[in-house]
Every structure is written in structure tokens, then in C-alpha cells.
Amino acid sequence: MIEHGLAHGWEPDAVGGTFVLTEREHAAAWELAGFLLTDRLRDGAAPDPTSRVIAAFGGDGHGEGAEDRSGV
Fold this sequence. Notes:
Elements: H1 2-7, H2 23-26, H3 50-56
């Protein structure tokens, strides 16, 4: 994560030293097991990440650990 930030303009010595990983700018080139970028919490117009979350955990949404939401 640090290497990615440095390669994309992060300046950790700058005041605040933060680097925002956005889905729009970084998701296509970003891959880290168990980590998924989504802008959905900050941008209501961002794509729904549901299918990517299911795919990231290698399932169809109904396997081990899946929550039964049929009555919701």
C-alpha cells in the first residue's frame, strides 16, 4: 500500500501526509487479497460494489458465512 501511494504522488512528509485510495482513480490497478476499493460511502453515484464483494470472497453470496437476507 505504501509503495502504491508513493508511486502515485503521496508525500508522507507533507503536513497531514494522507493519500486517498479512490475506486475511480486506483481500483483498476489495485489488487490486494481481502481488500476492495469502493467510493460508495463518499459518493452515492459510485458503482454498487456488491458483485465485486461476492467475487472477492469467491462465492455466489450463499456459501459459508453468507447471511440469509431472503426476508429483508
